[in-house]
Amino acid sequence: MPTMNPDGFEYEYKQSQHGQGLGRLNAHKVDLNRNFPKVELLPSTNENGKGVGVPKQALYNSKSYLEELTKTQVNLEPEVRAVMHWSLIYPFVLSANLHGGALVANYPFDSQIKDVARKESKSPDDETFKMLAKTYSFAHPKMHKGNACVRFYDGITNGASWYVIDGGMQDWSYTYTSDMQITIELGCDKYPDEANLKSYWDDNKGALLAYITQVTRGIRGFVFDSKTKMPLSGVIIHVHGIQHNVSTSRDGDFFRILTPGIYDITVDRIGYQSETKQSILVGSQSSTYIEFKLKRKNFYDDNDKQGPYSNVTSTVYNRTKGVFSSFVNLTSSNVRTLYHHSKDFILHQQLFLIIAGISALVLAIVFATVVIYLRFCQGSTVRRDTGFQRYELLLQDEHDLPRIQRNNGKKSTRNGRPMSSESDDDEDETLFSSKIKKVIVP
Ligand SMILES: [Zn+2]
C-alpha cells in the first residue's frame, strides 16, 4: 500500500512547514491509520509457552464474520472501509504499508496487550514477523544499520515497543485476515521531495523484491473434500504452538508463512473431520507443499461435539429412540445431507457454470432442431402441393388423350371442340394418324 491518503500527503507537502500531522488526515479530519477496527489483545502464553497477545476478536478469520464487522462498525471512514473490503475480496498472504518519518521495518502488534506492563506487544507469530522485517531491513542498504534519525536494532521494531497505536492497518490485517502485514518507514523525511524519489526507489527496490519472495516461506497447499475432490474454502489451518490461524480461500488454497522448523498442522472445517499432519519440515529456501483430503462428518458421529448441530442432534437422538423416531431421524438426516450436498454443489461456482453452460447448449440444440424440422415440413408441403398440381395437369392431359377424335386423319377435335391447326398439333396428328393407319389399315 504506497499511500492510503494521497490528497492529505499533497496538502501537507505544499505547506511551508511540515510536522503538524495534517497530511495524515482525510477531508473529515480523521487519521486513517487509527480508524481500522480496534484489536483487543488479551495476554496469553502461546502454545509454545511464550507470552503473547491474542486478539479477543480473532475467532476464525471467517469471511462472514468480517462482513458483519464492516457493517457494524459505523465510524469507519470510506477509505478505511474500502481497504477493508479490498482485503476481504483478495486472499492476500503478505503485504506492507509504506510510511515515512523513520527508517525501520515495524511489525505487529501496534496495540498494547491488556493488563501487561511490558511495552513490547508480541504477536503469536513474533518469530515469523521478525524474520519478515529483517528480510526487508537487511536487503535495504541503510535500514539494517539502524542508525538513522531513530535508532532501531537491526532496523526492525515491534510496533508497541516503539509507540502504541490503536486502529492501525497492520494489526487489522494480521488479526482479521490471513494476510501478514508490516509497516515500512522509508526514511526520516515524512514528506520527501520529488527530486529524491530516484534514490528512494534505488534503496527500496531490492528490499521490496526480497520481501515479496517471503511468500514462499512456510507451508502452502490445498484442502479438498475426500469424496467429491472439490476444493474447500474457509478451512482453518492451525499450526500447533502458534495461536494464530489462516484459512483457505475460494479455491481451497492456503499459504502459511513460517520460520524454518518442524511443525504439526491441523486443519478444521465445520461438517468435516479435522485432520492433522505431523512433523512437517519447513526449510529456509522454499515452502513445503501439503494437501489435505477431509472426510465429511457423519451426521450422528459428532461425539467430539465440534459440529454445529452436534449438541442439538445428540439430545434429539437420546430423547427419541422408538422405531418411528429412528425413521424420522434417518429421514431428517438424509434431508440434511442432501441439503449440505446441494448447498456445496451450488456454492461451487465453476461446476455450476459448466453444467449451466452444457444445459444451455443442449437447449439451443433442441431449439435449433425444432426450428429446422418445422422449416423442413413447411418446405416439403410447398413442394408436394406444386407436384400435385403438376400431376393433376398431367392427369387432365392423359385423361383427354382418349377423347381426341380424328376425322380421316386430317382434322381433330378435343372435347368436341375443334383444335387449332398449329403446326405442332399437325405434326402430332400426322404421327398419330400414321400409327393409326398402321394399325387400322393393313
Ligand atoms: Zn508510520
State the end-to-end distance.
120 Å
By DSSP (H or I, 4+ residues per run), the number of helices equals: 11
**What structural category arises from helix and sheet content?**
alpha+beta
- Sheet with the most strands? 4 strands, mixed
Order of helix and strand elements from N to C terminus: HEEHHEEHEHHEHEEEEEEEHHHEEEH
Keywords: Carboxypeptidase, Glycoprotein, Hydrolase, Membrane, Metal-binding, Protease, Transmembrane, Transmembrane helix, Zinc
Domain Peptidase M14: 1-215
GO molecular function, one term: metallocarboxypeptidase activity
Cofactor: Zn(2+)
Which characteristics define this entry?
442 residues; alpha+beta; Aminopeptidase; Immunoglobulin-like; four-stranded mixed beta sheet; 11 helices; globular; binds zinc ion
Short account of what is shown:
This protein is an alpha+beta fold and 442 residues long.
Question: How are the elements arranged and paired?
Answer:
Layout: H1 6-14, E1 41-45, E2 51-55, H2 63-72, H3 78-89, E3 94-99, E4 102-107, H4 126-139, E5 156-158, H5 159-162, H6 169-176, E6 180-187, H7 197-212, E7 219-225, E8 236-239, E9 246-247, E10 253-256, E11 261-268, E12 275-282, E13 288-294, H8 310-319, H9 323-347, H10 349-400, E14 405-407, E15 411-414, E16 417-418, H11 423-440
Parallel strand pairs: 3-6, 4-5, 7-13
Antiparallel strand pairs: 1-2, 4-6, 7-10, 8-9, 8-11, 11-12, 14-15, 15-16
Helix pairs in contact: 2-3, 4-7
The structure holds zinc ion.
